[in-house]
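User: We ran a pulldown and think these components assemble together. Before we commit to crystallization trials, I'd like a predicted model of the whole complex to look at. Sequences follow.
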Amino acid sequence: MLSRTAENLFWIARNFERAETMARLLEVGARMALMPQAGHGYRNEWDSLLRASGTAVGFAEKYGDPVQRNIESYLFFDRDNPSSVASCVERARENGRIVRTALTTQVWDALNASYQEMRALERQPRSDLELSQLTEWTMRHAAQLRGAIDATQLRNDGYHFLGLGFALERADNTARLLDVKYYVLLPRVDFVGSELDNYQWQTLLRALSAHRAFHWAYGGDITAHKIAHFLILNRQSPRSLLTANGEALGHLDALAQAYGNATPAQERARALLAQLEKTTIEEIFDEGLHEFLTRFVRENAGLAALVQQTYLSGEAR
Amino acid sequence: MILTVRHATRYLYSAPMRGAVQSLRLFPSRFEGQNTRHWQVEVESGIRGASFVDGAGDRIEGWSMRGPLNEVCVRVEGEVETHDLNGVLRGHREAVPAAAYLRSTPATLPDAALSALAEAAVAGAQEALERAHRLSAAVAKAITYRPGATHAHTTAAESLALGEGVCQDHAHALIAAANVVGLPARYVSGYLFADAEGVAHEAAHAWAEIWLEGLGWVGFDAANACCPDDRYIRLGSGRDAQEAAPIRGLALGQGSAEKLEVEVAVGASQQ
Amino acid sequence: MPTQCFNEMYQGETVRAPYARLEDWMHAMPTEFRQMKQAEAEALFRRIGITFAVYGEGGDPDRLIPFDMFPRVFTQTEWRKLERGIKQRARALNAFLLDVYGRGEIIRAGRVPASLVYQNAAYEPAVAGIVPPRGVFSHIVGVDLVRTGPEDFFVLEDNCRTPSGVSYMLENREIMMRMFPALFRENRIEPVDGYPALLRRTLASVAPAKCEGEPTVVILTPGHFNSAYYEHSFLADMMGVELVEGADLFVESGLVWMRTTEGPRRVDVIYRRIDDAYLDPLCFRPDSMLGIPGLMDVYRSGGVAIASAPGAGVADDKAIYTLVPEMIRFYLGEEPVLQNVPTWQCAKQDDYAYVLEHLGELVVKEVHGSGGYGMLVGPSSSKAQIEAFRARLIANPGNYIAQPTLALSTTPTFVNEGIAPRHVDLRPYCLVGERIELVPGGLTRVALNEGSLVVNSSQGGGVKDTWVLSE
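Assistant: Here's a predicted model for the assembly, 1059 residues in total across the polymer chains.
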């Protein structure tokens, strides 16, 4: 397959996964804003979210103070913000248009419909749109895209580049969301274990649509250890780092088999997974959750770069 | 004469490039005025590619280099036996008809001043050869040799308006002027040997050729007010400097400024 | 405006034979049903993605070319003549290209002026002396035809570079078959869907001698912002070949390679949909970002085939057009089957004077123009438009040619008020490789505005399915 085709497939998945994360992040913010004030205004939380999404500077330049309505616009609709849901959806659809013939009609329809509906949403007055509508809209389309891919795409190399894009982006996004909670949202260390802490964890779970799954799996009180375990090491959790990593390796192995040739990318993914598998939650907290997540994000990005170099850049010989 | 050439062209990049591709027109033309004794073209750590003779009779060789690259170096070394044919390109095989050299390129497009210069120069002259000599003399007079006055993309019209230029500008202006009076003309790139008494010119040189019925292509070096003789080595031709360039290359990569270093030495050895 | 034009369906009250079965179909279709079908067709086009992109004009960049459901029909006898004429022309045009980049016999023989060829902007000295595989320069020849009577076909222009629109020929048929299957049972219509396979075979047949094994063919597109990107991607898909951009290819060791996820893969034949000037920054425009540096060196040393061959444009210039009948006689020793439209060349003094006198009656076109831009249709233009055009003509007479306003044939077309005659033209696509092939059909373009003679999609034109009936 042309490297550029593989690259576009990979980025269809990454862009859409990123759109979904952005919508979830918006939901976290909205829920936080609903919570009783705990000694600091909601402004700080929105500000934290902007920082977590890496869009704080761009937002400040355009709007100044973090007002919820503006933040919603910026994170959802704004084309000046490359990470906004609209920007991600548009890019994903453009990636799809470029490789239109590598996609089934159903997958193209899912991408194209999300873009066309997005444009329709943009034409509606903002006052008619609830935030929850927007976030649900995003998740619905992400699910449609994934469903169309699973149900209709040939299981060839193209399918695995799509899968690789979803898995690598998801691992990155889960780690960042978790880090947001721990490192950015909680104002001071002495809030650990407080009402606020607890509430924030619940919000995070809800935003990840993992609220009920978590309770089924763990029961009892929400603790940092349990959630970290759920989102990092639980093989049943669809968003955990271990699951996402395992999927990435699965797609890479399938590629190696299809091409009859393994590369350093498979090796790196296998090492990363092995490392996660033998890690315990205690070790993670001993290292420091933030330090662990920072390291993971870096290693995951390293794997993505290796995939880029090996398969997508066209420079491989 | 026996002329020896050592020519190194080095492109330096500020950041590593992903690769480079070059098309080289760096081989002495085959005609009665030149006999190549030996000639070597080498691109450092390059991969030799296509090699062929184009429609204008020039040997062309493609090269490519894999990245990461910090520099590209093209080396030419060789020895050519030359004969003075008074500028006539005798015995040169080519497929492009002379009439194709009546079409201007942006670099050789005549403006009103070039047209006027050409018309005035040939006024009263009947014979084609004489007309060509007069055009060359007129261009030499109108454009004073001054390095640095013009740049690689200066057009014939701009150089004439400025009244200054280098050999490239003289050649462009002469092509434009010849076309004005209906004579096909083209750009030639090559080397020039200048001994101690000669005018100190760059050894990498360029001049023009004009098509004259009965004689064929005849070289005119307006910059030196003469026709090419045994001090000249002819490499290749085109409608302008860009088409006739001895090296056309491209490095793949982004945001990396290029520095160019050229060393050329043309010497004469004992017969 | 010519009042008497040939109506391809009706001669007076009588229905011409090829349209006989369409009359019932037409009358049996209530307006609501027709509108429903029209909407269905549009939805299909949009779903498949057949749009032509127009950027930088605001609005939806993905526009549909209006599709008219009323087919245009030819009898087998009519088609045989067209086929003979088109193939003859494609042969002569290729013989001409091989000649002018070779010895130039037609010029030496004084049948074509040297200046018209060698000073033509499309004449490419860089490929002089090159003989492409099988001697073919133009592998896809699009011949634009108009009709003025039962037996009268004229060639309006030739397209030797990269004629576009063939995807519409294929999709129009596909959509008609889906919407009106009964029509295809009642009428015996020659299929056109073999075109992509024929195109691939044609391209494979011109692989260079250096090619080993089954040739790898690719389509080279300027990219997804190009207005014809849909067609490029459609053809690649139907042919089962890769659609590449310049950056997907590179040159090494005298060959062209494609960047794939499994490493470099050799490319033998490039069907390019970009202009000569952009093919290779080391040979043509140095600022081209669309091409492949070093490609022309590989091409000229026989390492890769390019379709159409660089330089092919010199045969389809509007000034060269007038000489095609002469080419047919010179190279083939035959009389042209299809006639040219009489053409005045404003570069010639007498012609120019005539054109200035008769601007109001003529169609005047730019020599190098296309797409229906930069032209004047005298009879349907206002005085002011004619005078504005006259100024441009006087400023640069050599840039224009003129033709009489032909009474283009009409075919019935669905319009808001029901069914009405509209003017049409025809572009069949002739393939030239080891053999010369022509699928029975082509793209019929229709001027949807009443009385209009301009069929270009950018100016109110639409498309129709084109039928050739079996015996």
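DSSP finds 15 helices and no strands in chain A. That may be worth checking against your pulldown data before setting up trials.

User: Thanks, that helps.
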